[in-house]
Amino acid sequence: MRKFPKGFLVGAATAAHQVEGNNTNSDCWAQEQMPHTTYKEKSGIACDHYNRYEEDIRMMREAGLNAYRFSIEWARIQPEEGVFDGEQIEHYRKVIRCCRENGIEPIVTLFHFSSPVWIIRKGGWEAETVVEDFEKYVTYVIRALGNELKYVCTINEANMGLQVAAISRRYTIMAKKAAEAAAKNGGGEVQMGLNMQAMMENMKYQAMENAEIFGTPQPHCFNLGGSEHSDLLTMKCHQAAKRVIKELYPEIQVGLTLSLHDLQPVEGGEARAEETWAEEFTHYLPYIQNDDFLGVQNYTRTIVGPEEDLPVPDGAERTQMGYEYYPEALEHVIRSVAKDFKGNLMVTENGVSCDDDSRRVNFINIATDGVAKCIADGIPVKGYFYWSLMDNFEWQMGYRMRFGLISVNRETMERTPKESLYHLGRL
Fold first, then answer.
1. What is the DSSP code (8-state) at residue 283?
2. Helix, strand, or coil here: 259?
3. Residue 189 is among the residues annotated as catalytic for this protein
4. b/e per residue 344-367 (b: at least 16 CB within 10 A)
5. What CATH number is given for 9-159+227-425 in this structure?
6. Among the options 32, 73, 105, 157, which is catalytic?
7. How far, in Å, CA of 261 to CA of 264, rounded?
8. How many C-beta neighbours within 10 Å does residue 85 have?
9. What is the mean predicted confidence (pLDDT) over 124-149?
10. Cα(119)–Cα(116) distance, integer angstroms
C-alpha cells in the first residue's frame, strides 16, 4: 500500500475563511453580507474550526496523516491598520503546537484569498501600498511564530487574479453572444439573455454597496480578479515576505502556490496552450526560481482548442463543481512544472467534490499513483495535501460543494470521518 518514501508529507489542507467561521473583518465576509451578493450562502460559523481545531487535528492523527496545511487569517491578526491582535497570534500558536503534539507537521499559508477590509479601502491589490502592508503583517507573524515553523507558503494561488480575470472575460463574451441570440429570438429561447438584464441590474446595486463598504464601486479584492499590475504587486509581496522570513529564520522553507491546469491542446490549439501556460506558470519563474519549494495545485484538465477552450467531453464524469473528473491531470502538471522549476515541489491542493466517497478514494489513488511515478523518475516531490480536510465553505458556491475527507453536520457541527480520510492516511 505504501507509495511514498520515509519523510514524505501526506496531509490535508484548509483555508481560514472557509473553516474557522466569523471572519468578520475580512473582505470576503463583507461581500457575503451585501444585499446583492454573488455568494450563494454566508459563511457564518463555517465549520467552527476556530474552536474545534483540536478535534480536527486529532482525527488527522488517528487516520495516519502526518501534515496539515492551514492558513493564518490576516484579517484576524490585523483587524485595523496599525493594530495587531496578540490574542489571535496566540490562537494560531496553539494550533501549531496542537499539530506538533499530534505528530502533524504544520504547513502555514500566510494569505489565502481573504484580506482585511482596510486593505481594500486603501486600494486593495492594485495599490502599491499593499506590498509594505503585507510585509508588516508577515514580519509580525514570523517574529511571533517563526521558531515554531519549518514550512511557510506566502500566498495561496498567487496567479488566481489573472485566472479570475480571464474567466470573467470569457463569461462576458458568452453573455454577449447569448444576449444577441435572445434579441434575435425575442428572448424566448435563450434564458441567458433575460438573466443578463438581471445581472446588469445587480451589478449596479453591487457598485453602490461596494462604495459603501469599501469606499469604491470597484474594490480590488484578491478573489475578484486582477490586472498585470496587481499580478506584479503579488510577486513583490511574495518576495518581500520571503526576505523577511529568511532574515528572521533562515532555516524556514519558503514558497508560494499556483493554480495549474493540465493543458491538453487539440490540433491547432498548441499556440493557445503555450500562451495560457505562460500566463499560469512560466512568467512567474523569475520571481520564484530561488524559492525553497513550489506548491502545485491542480484539480482537472483543460482541453485547448484553436479559438477557445473546449467543453467537457460528452459522457465524461463531472464533479459537483462542474468540471471533469480527471485525477490523471496532477501527474501531467507536475511533469510540466518540473521542466522549468528545478526546486522541490509540494502538491499543496488536489481533490474532488462529490458525494460518492468511493469516487474520492479512486481519485486519490490515481492522483497519488501519478505523484509516486514522478518521484520514481527523480522529480523532487516532497508532499501531497488533499483538498480539503472537511466539507467546508467553498467561497461563492457555499456549502454545496463537498470536497472533504470529513463530513460536517451543518446543524450540530458534528464531524464524521469518511473512508477516504483513512485511505489517505494509509498511503
1. G
2. strand
3. no
4. bbbbbbbbbbbeebebbbbbbebb
5. 3.20.20.80
6. 157
7. 9
8. 16
9. 98
10. 5
